[in-house]
Design a protein that fits this description.
The protein is of the alpha/beta class. The protein is 45% helix and 18% strand. The protein has a 7-stranded mixed beta sheet. Strands 3-5-4 form a 3-stranded antiparallel beta sheet. The structure holds S-adenosylmethionine.
C-alpha cells in the first residue's frame, strides 16, 4: 500500500506533465500507479513525485506506463471492413479526395498507418494525409520508426501486408510510402486545442479510461471539430449515450455522423 496524499500527487503530476489524472477513472489508474511506485521501490507518493522531477528515465517510464499504449493494425477488422465498403466511399463522394483525417490517441502508429492503407484502396496514396496525435512522445517515436511484431499485423489484408511492409528479422517495418502520408504530433485531448473542419476523426480505445464527464467533453469537442457530414469512428466499448444532444446521428455502434 502506497502511503501519502493521492490528491496532492495528482496536483504534482498535473504541474509536471499537464496530465490531469482527475479525468481518468480513479480506481483503475491508482492501481496502476501504485504498482509502478512499488516496482520502483518508493514508499510514498511525495517521494515518487520528487523522483519524477529529478530522473528523466523515471519520468518517461511513468508517462509511458499510465498511458496504456496497446494497439494493433486494423483493430476490430469488421469495423475496418465497414470503413472500406461504406464510410470511405461516402466521405470521398461528399468531400472529395483531399480529406482531413485525424487519428487521435494514435499510440504506436498502427491506427494511422491502417488508415493510409485503407484509404489507398480508394484514393491515390500521395493525396492521403493523416494527422496523428498522442499524448505520449515515446509512442510517437515508435510510430515514426514503424517496426511491428507479426502479431500486431494479424488484421492487415494480405495484399496490403505484402505491398507495404518489409520483413526485418522477426519484425515488419512499414514502408516509407505509407509513413510519408502521416504527420505525427503531441496532443493532449484533455488540454490542447482541437483541429477544425475535419472530415473523419478516429479515436479508439482511449476514452474507456476517462471519467464520464471527461468523455462527454471530448465527444462534444470532436463534434465541434467535424464538418457537417463528417464521421467519428470510436472503439468497440465506447458508445456515445447522448449523441443527439451533441449533434451526432448514430450510423451504427462505432460510427457517428455529425449532422448539426
Ligand atoms: C490503448 S491506446 C489506443 C491506440 C489506438 N487508438 C487503438 O485503438 O489501437 C491509448 C492511447 O491513448 C493515449 N492517451 C491517453 N490519454 C491521452 C490524452 N489525454 N490525450 C491524448 N492521448 C492520450 C495513450 O498515450 C495511448 O497511446
Amino acid at each position: 500500500m502506497i502511503q501519502g496524499d493521492y490528491e496532492e500527487f495528482k496536483k504534482s503530476i498535473f504541474s509536471l506533465t499537464k496530465i490531469d489524472l482527475n479525468a481518468y477513472k480513479e480506481k483503475q489508474m491508482r492501481r496502476r500507479i501504485d504498482s509502478l511506485i512499488t516496482r520502483n521501490s518508493f514508499k510514498d507518493y511525495a517521494g515518487y513525485a520528487e523522483g519524477l522531477k529529478k530522473d528523466t528515465g523515471l519520468f518517461d517510464e511513468f508517462v509511458n506506463y499510465i498511458t496504456i499504449n496497446v494497439s494493433e493494425f486494423y483493430r476490430n477488422p469488421d469495423q475496418w471492413k465497414l470503413m472500406d465498403t461504406e464510410f470511405i466511399p461516402e466521405l470521398k463522394k461528399k468531400f472529395g479526395e483531399n480529406l482531413k483525417i485525424w487519428s487521435a490517441a494514435c499510440s504506436t502508429g498502427d491506427e494511422p498507418y491502417s488508415l493510409v492503407m485503407a484509404f489507398s484502396r480508394h484514393i491515390p496514396l500521395n493525396k492521403i494525409k493523416i494527422h496523428a496525435t498522442d499524448l505520449d512522445k515515446t509512442v510517437i517515436g515508435k510510430a515514426k520508426v514503424g517496426l511491428y511484431s507479426a502479431k500486431s499485423l494479424l488484421g492487415v489484408p494480405s495484399d496490403l501486408k505484402d505491398k507495404y511492409f518489409d520483413k526485418v528479422g522477426p519484425s515488419y517495418q512499414i514502408k516509407d510510402e505509407i509513413k510519408k502520408q502521416v504527420e505525427f504530433k503531441e496532443h493532449n485531448l484533455l488540454k490542447d486545442a482541437y483541429p477544425s473542419n475535419q472530415d473523419l476523426i478516429v479515436c479508439r480505445n482511449v476514452l474507456i479510461y476517462f471519467t464520464e464527464e471527461a468523455k462527454d467533453e471530448v465527444f462534444r469537442k470532436f463534434a465541434a471539430s467535424l464538418k457537417k457530414g463528417g464521421i467519428l469512428f470510436i472503439g468497440s466499448t465506447e458508445q456515445i449515450m447522448n449523441y443527439k444532444d451533441m449533434g451526432y446521428e448514430r450510423r451504427n455502434s462505432f460510427f457517428y455522423e455529425k449532422v448539426r
